[in-house]
Amino acid sequence: MSDNERKVNDVGGLPGGPIDLHEHANTLHEKRVDALVMLMVNPRIGAFTVDSLRRAIEENTPQEYASLGYYSKWLKAVRQLLVEQAVLTEDEIEAKMADVRKRMEAEAHA
């Protein structure tokens, strides 16, 4: 397989610098993203599969893949899959995000 045929996550054998192998405790945000994904792939809910999550992550552009953190890639993929599966629309997601931003700003100024 040539470099042109590689998926964005297929970096084996390519120079990429050192890898940080230090353990760290997951942040609350990371725990929430993990819990959300575990719920969505649960067969009783079945919003999407782990395989589709992987596909969505691998569809990131090289720039997105390099700049997004591990759980940010998951969250971006969850959003994409929920729209693909017609669980939510982009408009519904954007409206909820606007509500959350407004509430956070109000709390910050209180």
TrEMBL record:
Record-annotated Nitrile hydratase beta subunit-like N-terminal domain positions: 7-106
Protein name: Nitrile hydratase subunit beta
Region of interest called Disordered, as start-end residue ranges on this chain: 1-22
Transmembrane residue ranges: none
Organism: Futiania mangrovi
